[in-house]
Design goal:
This protein has twelve helices and twelve strands. The chain is α/β, with parallel strands linked by helices.
């Protein structure tokens, strides 16, 4: 099947993937209202292009936390890439490096951060832009060991998921009995250090309701890596993030996988932009399926956006080539949308290019 959009790619990926794996990737919490809303909310934002501005060819390059990017579209953290393709996160890392963007490696990666980093360096011909997403574990000693591995691997930032004091209830996984990885596959970043000649055992991720701002303070004192807090949706938490030393905030509702009926991230972005007031960079994920979606988020004040599920669809279709196609689709669409809106650069985008439409109908279950 020839694919012309990310939605085409998802349809084809669904056809190829084991149904339980597809449901794990695509599904969300409870009735999945937030999953649907993340995508449909972008349709309520219209574009008001400017004309006759002589802007010239669009420039997509930007800089984020010291990383030079070819475009403000990152690969967000998603677990278990080997369920989509045998090369898993290695393939994703090679394409992210070749494309000149950031890959945020999941703590639940099926390939160890050291191997992911080596693949990225090989593709980049040197250092690449690699960040590691982590869940702070109650065992702080083990958490520190993971962070030291990230530092040694050359990661430049830690993306701390803060919206998971407990695990969301995902009915698709319950129906499918999907509660573990296949034999021979595991979360390699959760492996304990070797004991003599024996490989360390692999831990399970522990979600703790005791996670607090004190843990962020501990982390800030532990490492010089940049710290991005992922899962901020309330403006007061955005202010607290700055107060506790965060270098950036990722506005995220976990792709609708944790708490259902949280509003779409694009709807939450303006209040957080106002609260942060330019003091630190803002990123956004959730529902980015077109270059115009990215443009709308940037116009509302995001410095960059991150994609999750589309990367998995690309992997399932054609490994590295599939991920490359995903990034090239979004790059091309963003480039064209910038030109049609009369903008020379992603930094020219402003809210006056947008028209917010009223909500005329409620989300239906996905």
């Amino acid at each position: 099947m020839q694919t012309f959009s990310l939605r085409d790619m998802e349809i084809e990926a669904q056809r190829r993937l084991d149904p339980a794996v597809y449901d794990y990737f695509a599904g969300g919490a409870d009735d999945e209202f937030t999953v649907v809303s993340n995508e449909t909310a972008f349709a309520r934002i219209g574009l008001l292009p400017r004309v006759l501005r002589g802007a010239g060819p669009a420039k997509l390059e930007t800089t984020l936390l010291g990383c030079h990017l070819s475009m403000p579209i990152l690969i967000g953290p998603t677990a278990f890439h080997q369920l989509a393709h045998p090369e898993g996160e290695r393939a994703t890392a090679r394409i992210a490096a070749a494309a000149g963007t950031i890959m945020i490696v999941s703590m639940a990666s099926t390939v160890a951060i050291e191997e992911v980093a080596a693949s990225a360096r090989q593709a980049a011909g040197g250092e690449s832009n690699l960040w590691l997403q982590i869940y702070l574990q109650p065992d702080l000693g083990f958490t520190e060991s993971v962070i030291r591995r990230a530092e040694a691997a050359g990661c430049s930032a830690l993306v701390v998921t803060v919206d998971s004091p407990t695990f969301g209830r995902r009915e698709r996984d319950l129906r499918n009995g999907f509660d573990d990885l296949p034999s021979g596959m595991c979360c390699e970043n959760l492996r304990e250090p070797m004991n003599g000649n024996n490989r360390g055992k692999v831990r399970k991720i522990v979600f703790s309701p005791k996670l607090s701002w004190k843990d962020i303070d501990w982390l800030r004192n532990l490492t010089d890596l940049k710290i991005v807090l992922k899962g901020i949706v309330h403006k007061e938490d955005a202010k607290l993030a700055i107060r506790h030393g965060a270098d950036a905030v990722l506005v995220s509702n976990h792709g609708g996988r944790q708490l259902d009926t949280v509003p779409a991230t694009i709807d939450l972005l303006p209040a957080i932009v106002d609260a942060v007031d330019g003091r630190i960079p803002l990123l956004l994920d959730g529902g980015i399926r077109r270059g115009t979606d990215a443009l709308k988020a940037l116009a509302l004040g995001a410095d960059a956006v991150a994609i999750g599920r589309p990367v998995l669809w690309g992997l399932a279709l054609d490994g590295e080539a599939g991920v490359a196609q995903v990034l090239e689709m979004l790059r091309s669409e963003l480039d064209r949308a910038l030109t049609l809106c009369g903008c020379n650069s992603v930094h020219d985008l402003t809210p006056d290019l947008l028209q917010l439409r009223p909500v005329e109908e409620s989300c239906t279950r996905g």
